[in-house]
Design brief:
mainly alpha, 4% strand, 165 residues, elongated, 2 strands, two-stranded antiparallel sheet, Four Helix Bundle (Hemerythrin (Met), subunit A)
Amino acid sequence: MEGASFGAGRAGGAIDPVDFLKQPQTILRVTAWIFSIVVFGSIVNECYVNKDSQNPELLCIFNENESACSYAVAIGIIAFFGCIFFFIVDLYFQQISSVKDRKRAVLLDLGFSGFLSFLWFVAFCFLANQWQRTTMSKGVSQGADAARAAITFSFFSIIVWVSSA
């Protein structure tokens, strides 16, 4: 692409929605967005259970460690909003006329993607470790599929965010 700067054409170019949706970074961004929804959605919906019928307090099924659930939900929400933000940046990237601003946008995306790769790695290790230490009970077995989904998609999120970086 002649006159291109940081992977995009000249500023002020028209946006073709079909070409935009076919770009690998757009596909990765949407995939990461869906994975973040799966992780925090499955934990919030099914990974808090009652220990017994007499005690109405909800406990995290990851070894009854509230930090495991809270950390994964927090990273999922950060990734969710980060995907939306950078999707909008990607959409308006053609409209950025300053090379310095384009450079900042690319470096911010690179840094954020690398940082989230690390956070997802920590989330995967933390959740897998806590799940390994969890003793199976009736309450835990009800949310076991959601816990496994959260662990699996946190692993897939590592791959997607490393690819985005």
